[in-house]
Amino acid sequence: MRLVGTLQLALLLALTSWATGLNIPLEVEQLPTIVTYTTGPIIALPFDPTVKIKCKAKGNPTPEYRWTKDGEDFIPPHITTNKTDPTGGTVVLLNKHLINFQGKYRCYAFNKLGTAMTEEIELIAPSVPKFPKEGHPPIAVNEGEPFTLHCNPPEGVAPRQIYWMSLGLQHIKQDDRVSMGIDGNLYFSNALQKDSRKDYCCFAAFQRIRTIVQKDAMAVVVKRDPLRSAPPVRRPSLLLPSGVQTVKVLLKGETLKLECIPEGYPTPMVKWMKMGDKMAPRNKVDRHGKLLTISAVEERDGGKYMCTAENSAGEAVHYFDVIVEEQPKWLTEPPQGQLTVIGSDVHIKCSVTGKPPPDITWRRNGELFRGGQCNHAVYQCDASNVHGSILANINIMVMNMAPRILTRDYQDYAVVLGGDITMNCSAFGSPLPEVSWSKYETPGPIEGDRFSQNGSLQIIIAEKRDSGKYVCVASNREGKSSIAAICFYVFLFVADVPDAPTYLEISEIKSPRNVVLSWVPGSDHNSSITEFIVEYEESQWEPGRWKEQQKVPGNQATAELALHGHLNYQFRVYAVNAVGPGPPSEPTEGYKTPPAAPDRNPENIKIQGHLPHQMDISWEPLLPIEHNGPGLEYKVSYRKLGVEDVWTEHLVKRHSFVVRNTSTFVPYEIKIQSRNSHGKGPDPKVVTGYSGEDVPTAAPRDVAVEVFNTTVLRVSWTPAPPATVRGHLGGYDVQWFRKRSLLNPNKVLDERQSMSFPGKRTHAIVPGLKPFSEYRLTVNVFNKKGNGPYSDPVTFNTPEGVPAQVPILTASNAQKDTILLVWGPPLETNGILTGYLLQYHLFDEPTLEVVDSQEINITKADTTQWRLRGLEEGRLYRFHLSACTRAGCGPPLAQESRTVTSARDGIWRISEAVNTSQSFHIIDGLKPGAVYTVRLMAKRLLDNASIFEDVIQTRVKGERREKLYEDDFSTQGWFIGTMCAVALLTLVVLMACFVRRNKGGKYHHIADPTSSLSVVVDGSDSEEKPLKGRGLCSLNDDDTVGDSISRDSLVDYADGGGEFDEDGSFIGEYSESKHGGSGSAPSGPGPVTA
């Protein structure tokens, strides 16, 4: 036996095999087969007195059992047995010592032929969950900073639910700022004063063990900077998860949960996306956008996901690499047991799938299989990966055996005439025997379309001539010499529906409308009668239609019938048995009942008022057979409730009536009685209803308003008298309209709004008002018919509110210690503008921490610019500007800028803003022979990310490229002549440059304030090269003069096509220049034009 491609095991014997599911009768000696066992994991609950681990197998001889725990032999302390299986049973573990029995168990069922085994059964005995006793010092945090309250809930029996509540069991409110993570911790994106409290409690609930445990209360103290009116703006980062990327591995079918909890001020908002693909439609975003869930994940749900946390200061991202894997599972079905004869080949195919691909282990009788010959044995295919395992027991039976018929001899079968019947013939042998049937009285096999043989014999649409004895014969090649045939006989009986009853007779008992019907039952045809059905037909209303009157038990042959009057009846009866209903009897002669008064009154009376001065009454009429006589009509009686004693009566034939000229919405008593020409029905029941509604006639009184704040008020009123509502009260409408803004009282407005408040009430809350405005408000009552009149109007004013955010704030004209701020006034002042609040913060650039903060109150309302003085040189500042009224200051708008730096060695210097459409920039004022690091950066300095960076060395004035000779040759004649020629050529070049300068004009660049770049230069005289792999270049215009380049000479290159290559390095200078010149990037140290 060997492993083929890790999935196929071959038992090399010889000849042929039967690869079928093994189903051997227990009468035949066979291998053990696991019938049932407890699948893991088993969670032992604290209140369970015992834990039972079941393992039951079948086989011949009867299997015995042994157990292992964590791979070692285990003798159970208690085993239950029963009479039918004395060697098997259930392992019983007492809860008292259950903690000692935690582990992974495996059951082995064995007899002399082989051993079957179960998968591992894990037993978990969790202890009662509880939080450790520990002190929690108060958590102190500055306002605006993030903090986390750790729950660290204990493990316990799933499912576990976490709650954050106060000691008074009030839930801690969660929103986009405060939320609980999957880990149970409570995260605060930024701290506010209202977060200060002493009773933050974490509760863990375990439903299965009905237990809730509580962690000791935690206290939080939020400190506020008295110099600030609001926390400083802070760029988002993530409290959870940490790092840049998280790898998430989960199983197919599980629920994917990705969580991003940000911190920052203002509170960041979280967005989700799947990179390169659409999000699954099953996705759901919970917990204010911080939790993304996808139920029942599939392999296509894997990939890279990104969450983005964003506020006004910036954004932070985190990537999730989601990998969907799968536990081992069978590709089609587990491998089946096989029965084969001696000398045949047997192939066992173990086809599994999973991710990662499962490893397959083969065992024989529970032991690792290493090859060899095969007789009877149980083979185990065990497929496993990191997520679990599956196991199949494959019984291989190798035997030669003559046929053996296992069905009991002389078995009786009963069949209904025309029905189908199957006669069993279970036989076993090896090879599998062939089974044939014959009828005892008729030689030869049974043939015909009504007969089907597949081991058993099926007869379709049985006939009476099919009754008799049948013989089943089983044979194979092993039984010819000793056993020629094994047969048994079958007797067949036929059952049918019962015959129709006969001799129906009607007799009166109390009155002509109460009679007794009797009959004689027919034959039951070998199946007892279960019931009789009495039917009637009447000739007046529905002649020829038979209806069920009554059911009678099968052991009774009479029925007492209550009949309606003034009808001509006929009756018939049929019987029912297990086969079905039989045919009906012949109908009786006609039986006519005398007329009588109606037996009941109409039901489902409805009273409605479609018009104000009438009342509509309708009801459900009697059925025609309930009239009991000719001349059916209805007496409608009504009177005002509590006012009138005399009933007003009307006789009508239809089933509706309209009472006209009623008072509006008045209660009435109504009753309806049936009557015909032979009398009245029983006394009717009285019902109550109302006449028609009309619109209300009165308005609510004493309307008053209480202004809560700039946008919300409470309105109250005294309800209108009930009599004036004139209908069922629907509720109240509140209307208000804004007459004018108090900032511009001469301009008349007409902004109308309304809200409806259903039911009986005396007050309502009205939202959505605008600050510093004059309003007018009315209230009216309404019913189904419409609205009542408006109340007397109430005029009121809303107080001033804080202004809206200023629309724009710019920082410009930066000097070493001053910056000019310019802004626009708020679009919505919501009151009289009193000035502005300016706050500015000094940042430490490497850490982006606030070093110093200042605040200025600008008291002139018409101020739109302010120059800040006394700032530190070359430092980064953030400015917050809020507009203010007497009610306070509105939300701030932020802007960043920095002061200018004087050039100093080793200090970063920043150029003016460079327009993004520009392809070059002049850097002057550099030292000759110095090394500089040059960076091209985005204007948003807090991003701290350079677009381009390189190291450049300037040339020394008059420095030559190379020495011509090592010895002194300045006195040689040829040298003196050469220098004269060079001097003359230099004079010509200088004159040409002077002419071009006058022709080109002064070059000047104005940076676009909305879209710009900055060039940052770091100067150093050392020989260090800060950027590994960058070229060390010379910054000069020619080979001799290091600082003679003129800005004016670059005007003609303004349209040049400079570009960057893929790694960010500059690869072209002033390409396609108007003067036909060319520039190329240097390789290694050498001059470069910048």
From TrEMBL:
Segments for region (Disordered): 1054-1090
PROSITE patterns reported in the protein's UniProt record: FN3, IG_LIKE
tRNA processing keyword on record: no
Keywords: Cell adhesion, Cell membrane, Disulfide bond, Glycoprotein, Immunoglobulin domain, Membrane, Repeat, Signal, Transmembrane, Transmembrane helix
Membrane-spanning residues: 973-995
Protein's membrane topology: Single-pass type I membrane protein
Subcellular locations according to the entry: Cell membrane
Domain called Fibronectin type-III: residue spans: 500-596, 601-694, 699-801, 802-905
A single GO BP: cell-cell adhesion
Ranges where the Ig-like domain occurs: 32-124, 126-213, 236-318, 328-397, 403-484
Signal peptide interval: 1-21
Superkingdom, natural source: Eukaryota
Low complexity compositional bias, start-end: 1080-1090
Principal location class: membrane
InterPro entries linked: FN3_dom (IPR003961), FN3_sf (IPR036116), Ig-like_dom (IPR007110), Ig-like_dom_sf (IPR036179), Ig-like_fold (IPR013783), Ig_I-set (IPR013098), Ig_sub (IPR003599), Ig_sub2 (IPR003598)
A Pfam family that the UniProt record links to this protein: Ig_3
Any one Gene Ontology cellular component term annotated for this protein: plasma membrane
SUPFAM superfamilies assigned: Fibronectin type III, Immunoglobulin
Similarity-based family: Belongs to the immunoglobulin superfamily. L1/neurofascin/NgCAM family.
Annotated protein name in UniProt: Neural cell adhesion molecule L1-like protein
Organism: Sparus aurata (Gilthead sea bream)
Lineage: Eukaryota, Metazoa, Chordata, Craniata, Vertebrata
Gene name of this polypeptide: LOC115585484
